[in-house]
Amino acid sequence: MPANVIDGKALAQKLREDMTEEVSQLKAEGIMPHLTVIIVGDDPASKTYVNGKKKATHQTGISSDVIEMAASVSEHELLEKITELNQDKTVHGILVQLPLPEHINEQKVIQAISPDKDVDGFHPVSIGKMMTGQDTFLPCTPYGIITMLQSYNIQIEGKHAVVMGRSHIVGKPVGQLLLNEHATVTYCHSKTTNLTEFTGNADILITAVGKPNVIKQEHIKEGAVIIDVGINRLDDGTLTGDVDFPSAAEKASYITPVPKGVGPMTITMLLNNTIKAAKGLSSVAN
């Protein structure tokens, strides 16, 4: 029996409709949620992501602006701009689009953002709170994945979750969030030997390796839940994930497509974090 397809686009749309109502209510209370995005350089992929974020904020009524800085901007200038935004009470969320040019230290930039405005969920304070199960801004893609699983009533507690990838943005935090939901978590990466032994025993398999179609039907367990975070562009211009969708869908119980799977949820969780930040700042300001 073919797998149930987890429609991230439809779920994201439903959540954004609820957020639109929440934003309207905040505006009625005199609070205008505002997100500022900083983009350094002219990387086409980064510009596409930023435009998508800006469009999504406007659709839900969130105010946003984009600060474009030249690739030659100094680290000092960028940090000064972040300090200025930290002090601006009309700005609730700050996001610096990654990657940054090589002469700028990404960790230094991430740590410069106030934890109260860290809507990407990358600040060490946010990560530390996530690790210890405290309320905080969660990294958007992992947060979106957990929300998808919960929205489809997929059991996490007691299940064996295998995470392929160990990035700071997806792999590590999604494993922690699964652990927070009482899953048993295994991390796999480029140095893992006998990879199929792990993927073949996963109740929930999350792939975030950036290699097209590396996971096929023979690599997964019957009835597994497959969450494909990978976005890979093939020579013919089409997008595909890390999972060979047609073959894996014959064996899995649930599976996300690429595109229209995890991607729309990532931006939706950014909107959610921005609204959360606006609520937090409003209570401090008042």
TrEMBL record:
Gene3D superfamilies recorded: Leucine Dehydrogenase, chain A, domain 1 (3.40.50.10860), NAD(P)-binding Rossmann-like Domain (3.40.50.720)
EC number: 1.5.1.5, 3.5.4.9
Superkingdom as given in the UniProt entry: Bacteria
Pfam families associated with the record: THF_DHG_CYH, THF_DHG_CYH_C
PROSITE patterns linked: THF_DHG_CYH_1 (PS00766), THF_DHG_CYH_2 (PS00767)
Binding site for NADP(+): 165-167, 231
Keywords on record: Amino-acid biosynthesis, Histidine biosynthesis, Hydrolase, Methionine biosynthesis, Multifunctional enzyme, NADP, One-carbon metabolism, Oxidoreductase, Purine biosynthesis
Gene Ontology MF term list: methenyltetrahydrofolate cyclohydrolase activity; methylenetetrahydrofolate dehydrogenase (NADP+) activity
Coiled coil: none
Tetrahydrofolate dehydrogenase/cyclohydrolase catalytic domain sequence ranges: 6-120
InterPro entries the record matches: Aminoacid_DH-like_N_sf, NAD(P)-bd_dom_sf, THF_DH/CycHdrlase, THF_DH/CycHdrlase_cat_dom, THF_DH/CycHdrlase_CS, THF_DH/CycHdrlase_NAD-bd_dom
Domain Tetrahydrofolate dehydrogenase/cyclohydrolase NAD(P)-binding: 139-279
Annotated catalysed reactions: (6R)-5,10-methenyltetrahydrofolate + H2O = (6R)-10-formyltetrahydrofolate + H(+); (6R)-5,10-methylene-5,6,7,8-tetrahydrofolate + NADP(+) = (6R)-5,10-methenyltetrahydrofolate + NADPH
Pathways involved: One-carbon metabolism; tetrahydrofolate interconversion
SUBUNIT field: Homodimer.
Family stated for the protein in its record: Belongs to the tetrahydrofolate dehydrogenase/cyclohydrolase family.
Function per UniProt: Catalyzes the oxidation of 5,10-methylenetetrahydrofolate to 5,10-methenyltetrahydrofolate and then the hydrolysis of 5,10-methenyltetrahydrofolate to 10-formyltetrahydrofolate.
Protein name from the UniProt record: Bifunctional protein FolD
Species: Lentibacillus salinarum
Lineage per the UniProt record: Bacteria, Bacillati, Bacillota, Bacilli, Bacillales
Gene behind this protein: folD
